[in-house]
């Protein structure tokens, strides 16, 4: 099993991706039945952006190029390693990536309810997931000693939103979008100030990547 995981990790890295966490599938995971282990896949920052920026999807697909790139790359990896791919942007059914993430023991709910990762902080994001029939318990469920970074943090994320759209109580998406649209040169367009306020992992994501996500969000 270890060799399979090593090869998968290498293949993910070549595509600018990384295993951000994993968990054992149980009988209550209806949509995952027939599989033993789920790996959550996200950008391997800062290397991811250069790879995506030079991709066919980024250069030629106007609508949701990152989603198309993710489907293509993670789909190819699924075929190569005998896994089934899942995506956070797919519908019918929509998938519980948030609750999946909380089961990895590497990702927790932050004070502002956004997910926070042990290495990538509030910049954690998912491009997909891979479900395997193999039980990788001794190979990929290695992060059980990770600790929630918020436990020793002063929580700058709580007061970082200038529009007060993202707080401990709620996330007002419409209020956030209207604030950014009104102030076209606002620093929010360089990346969500709440996410950037997290002292964990905020240096890993290139500004160009954050701007790309914010432009998509505002549209």
Overview of the structural elements:
By secondary structure, this protein is of the alpha+beta class. Helix content is 34%, strand content 13%. The chain is built from eight helices and six strands; from the N terminus they run αββαααβαβββααα. The strands form two sheets. A four-stranded antiparallel sheet has the order 1-2-6-3. The protein has a two-stranded antiparallel sheet with strand order 4-5. A hairpin with a 5-residue loop joins strand 4 (107-109) and strand 5 (115-117). The longest helix is centred in the middle third of the chain and has 17 residues, at 65-81. The mean pLDDT is 92.
Order of strands, main sheet, comes to 1-2-6-3
User: How far is the first residue's CA from the last residue's CA?
Assistant: 44 Å
Beta percentage is: 5-15%
Q: Count of DSSP helices?
A: 8
The total beta strand count reads: 6
The low-confidence runs, each spanning 5 or more residues with pLDDT under 50, are none
What is Rg?
Answer: 18 Å
List the secondary-structure elements in sequence, H or E. HEEHHHEHEEEHHH
Structural class: alpha+beta
């Amino acid at each position: 099993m270890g060799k399979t995981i090593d090869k998968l990790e290498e293949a993910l890295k070549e595509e600018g991706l990384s295993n951000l966490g994993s968990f054992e599938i149980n009988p209550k995971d209806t949509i995952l039945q027939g599989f033993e282990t789920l790996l959550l896949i996200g950008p391997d920052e800062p290397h991811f952006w250069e790879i995506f920026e030079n991709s066919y999807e980024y250069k030629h697909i106007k609508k949701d190029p990152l989603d198309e790139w993710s489907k293509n790359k993670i789909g190819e990896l699924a075929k190569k390693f005998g896994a089934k791919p899942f995506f956070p942007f797919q519908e019918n059914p929509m998938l519980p990536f948030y609750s999946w993430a909380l089961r990895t023991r590497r990702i927790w709910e932050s004070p502002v309810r956004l997910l926070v990762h042990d290495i990538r902080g509030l910049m954690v994001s998912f491009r997909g997931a891979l479900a395997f029939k193999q039980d990788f318990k001794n190979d990929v469920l290695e992060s059980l000693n990770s600790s929630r970074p918020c436990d020793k943090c002063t929580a700058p994320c709580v007061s970082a939103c200038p529009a007060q759209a993202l707080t401990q109580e709620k996330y007002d998406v419409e209020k956030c979008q209207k604030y950014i649209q009104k102030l076209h040169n606002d620093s929010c367009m360089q990346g969500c100030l709440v996410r950037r306020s997290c002292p964990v992992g905020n240096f890993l994501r290139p500004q160009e990547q954050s701007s790309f996500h914010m432009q998509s969000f505002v549209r």
